[in-house]
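#dry-run=false #mode=assembly
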Amino acid sequence: MATTNAPPAGTKPPAGTKSAGRPPARAKVRAGQTRRRRNALTAWLFALPFVLIFSVFMLGPLVSSFLMSFTDFTSRDIENPLAVGFVGTDQYAALFRNPQFLHSVLNTAYFVVVGIPLTTVLALALAVALNNGITRFRTAFRVGFYTPVVTSIVAVAVVWRFILQPDGLLNVILGWVGIAGPDWLNSTTWSMPALILLAVWRNLGTLMIIFLAGLQAVPGDILEAAEVDGANAWQRFMRITLPMLRPTLLLGTVLLSVGFLQFFEEPFVMTKGGPLDSTLSVSYFTYNQFGFGKYGLASAASYVLFVAIALLSLLQFRALRSKD
Amino acid sequence: MTIPETSAPLPAAPAPAAASTGTEPAAVVRGAVPAGSTGGSPQQRNARRRSSRRAPARRTLTYAVLVVAVAATLLPFAWMFLGAFKTQGELLRRPITWWPEQPTLDNFLVWFNELHIGTFFLNSVVVAVFTVLGNLLFCSMVGYALAKMDFPGKRFLFLLVMVMLMVPGVVTFVPLFVMVSKLGLVSTYPALILPFLAAPMGVFLMRQFIMGIPDSLIEAARIDGAGELRTFLRIVMPLCGPPLATLGILTFLGSWNNFLWPLVVAQTEDMYTLPVALSLYSTGQNATDYGLLLAGSVLVITPIILLFVSLQRYFIQGVAATGIK
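#status=ok
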């Protein structure tokens, strides 16, 4: 770009244009510059509505939250934001000394570490079954497994709270096989597994569709060749399908972990973070601190979560790219 | 027919399934034909038909497992629909009942006659429609600029969009609320719509698709004297049907189910959207009126389920294309 804008003084024009070319070339350069400037203006005009909305409603809040995390901003400072004190990284230090925050980190880790493998394995099993195992009703199954994804969490929570009651539907079904189910949502041990179950149920469909798209891109002739060579279905899956599905698997898990790390809606509608903070996530902790008016601390907590998500995504994307 | 290195040593003896296919080479494509492909040569189709006769036991087992799994997935919905027609007495009775003993519409009638569900429904529709229209227009405009134009700051703008995709909602939540309340927009449609009017995900989606449109097409329009706006409206937009369908559907879904933000900014009853109304009623004085809540849930999810079932192909294409729900 820069070289066409203003040709460096020392460069000689090509032999053919030497005699007569100079003045017209300069005029052309000037015309080019004008055109480029006009094109840039047009491009920014196309981007303008987005840029305005993006700056005001996303970038602005993102920056002010970042700045807030280095201050002792509380809800009382809203009227006079310039009066707040700069406290450096004190909020971050306070955060990592806060037992409730550390508890919420552990809870989020529990949710992510159990929830992601569980969702991934189940979604992959369903995708493989739909792709290879059956020939009919594929659409009906796909719609069925995807339905929980499209439904409102609030509506879903109503029925799940009802199902998870001590003598509710889930425990009745467990009773059929001789298991006495716990009081899911009021037990510090079982509240998190119940929310993981709900999250798996809600996210299975998305991941299954992504995997199904990936499976359909696995070339048939390779599988065919392996079968000719006597590989059984399991060997074909482990040695061919799974390695070729790697990018899709990574994409799926990146998306899922970005979502799962922000774990919030499930406890918000089901348990309010309880009992005894056993389902309090980092997002929920942050939300509560905002509610208490401790904006500085809440902003710091939200940035810790942001950094965790960004780092995890970067790591996973690097792994993804190194395989391409 | 080469085997990639990943499939290294394989047992010498052919698997029984492969052995029984005899000498006809086409018969070994079992399982190799991508699902959903309706095509394939007649030989391939024959092979598939033969293979389905070959492993009926395993196929039956797969069907059985899938049917049980899909039934388990849909059970909460069945429970919701059945429960919505039960009386409060029946819902509280133990042991639980499956089929409503005295089916009643009372739960629904309360929503229609006493709780202004029409207003909530209208709010949800207005917010969703404007959000969808805004995203379709603004995301494709900036997507076109990012994909097919050169301008200073382009890389930086795209980088910002990508970063924003990773920002957790809770980071911007309160500064956003403070700003909206300072602007005096609390409990107005703009507060419910503006923050979602141009989603970074949509920009990404539109840019990726428009990049795939051949430059020659756009050059041709420019040479013919069409300005950028004309090129965009006459050449680019008509080709963007599939991503616009995806974006429209995903945005509608997100808006319809959006919950936390509307809960905070819709502070007067005339501004509630459906999820907000349901959430407030389920924590308020009606918290134990299960029939009412189940009926409310049915009313919230039925429109979106109908939309999903009728447009399921586009939903699924969209999810497969973007990986983002």
